[in-house]
Amino acid sequence: MSDQTLPMMIEAKGLCKYYGTFIAIKDVTFSIPQGQIVAFLGPNGAGKSTTMKILSGYLAPSEGHAAIAGLDVRDQRLEAAKRFGYLPENGPLYYEMTPIELLQFFAEARGIPESEFDGRLAEVNKICALDQVLERPIGKLSRGYKQRVGLAQALLHDPDVLIMDEPTAGLDPNQIRDFRANIKELGKTKTILLSTHILQEVDAVADRVIVIHNGRLVYDGKPDELKENGSLEEPFYRLTDYGKTSPTEVTEEQVA
């Protein structure tokens, strides 16, 4: 089945976010079909996290709209939330809880019946390998294990879509390798959008790359089509025009 005939699981249409006269993102538009792993690539401050927060319903856009599995994330927030798991860059973890307590809390919040919890726990534990730390306070865990717990909560309700913001930030090389392997495996059954500023992440996991710079999309296509001499470095440097741009502003009339 071609991408054109697959259902669109993530849609951003004309997304804009203004803070006063500052443009965080402007006219961000893309669609991701079922089963695709997409790397959302850009330098720090490019607008990746703002876009992810709008897609997850955490932020409302100034203009445009976003949908998950055909459900508008603003007007159909609760229904859309059932279809995606969100792993922000930091959290949501409660350090005084153990992983099993945290997962029980999220199961209750998501309305997962008690009769199904043990089965879901076993499934996410199999993916995230939390056996050794299930009863330890999250605050005492390594960064790698904390990230595994975060992934477990995002997967607990078995969503069709995963949205992950800088999922390997702060991990050591072994932890990064394990986490990328998880993403590749999950991509067999789920649609995944992960933001990153790490070029190696694109090569390691992505079917497609979307590049954002200064709040605007500057590339959308296959990683291999972006490469020059087998590398993404020079094309990325050129697309982001690093060090030569100034903060983007919007007029009062545009904000109004």
What is the overall number of helices? 10
- How would you spell out the order of helices and strands? EEEHEEHEHHHEHEHEEHHH
Instruction: Indicate the mean pLDDT.
Output: 90
Total tally of structural domains: 2
Shape: globular
The major pleated sheet works out as: 6 strands, mixed
User: What is the tally of beta strands?
Assistant: 10
Strand arrangement, major sheet: 6-7-8-3-9-10
CATH topology of the largest domain: Rossmann fold
Overall CATH class of the largest domain: Alpha Beta
Radius of gyration: 18 Å
Please identify which CATH superfamily of the largest domain we are dealing with: P-loop containing nucleotide triphosphate hydrolases
Fraction in helix:
25-40%
CATH architecture of the largest domain: 3-Layer(aba) Sandwich
Report how far the terminal alpha carbons are from each other.
44 Å
How would you summarize the topology of this molecule?
Blueprint: E1 8-19, E2 22-33, E3 37-41, H1 48-55, E4 63-68, E5 71-72, H2 77-81, E6 84-87, H3 99-109, H4 114-128, H5 143-155, E7 161-165, H6 173-186, E8 191-196, H7 199-205, E9 208-213, E10 216-221, H8 223-226, H9 233-240, H10 252-255
Parallel strand pairs: 3-8, 3-9, 6-7, 7-8
Antiparallel strand pairs: 1-2, 1-4, 4-5, 9-10
Helix pairs in contact: 4-5
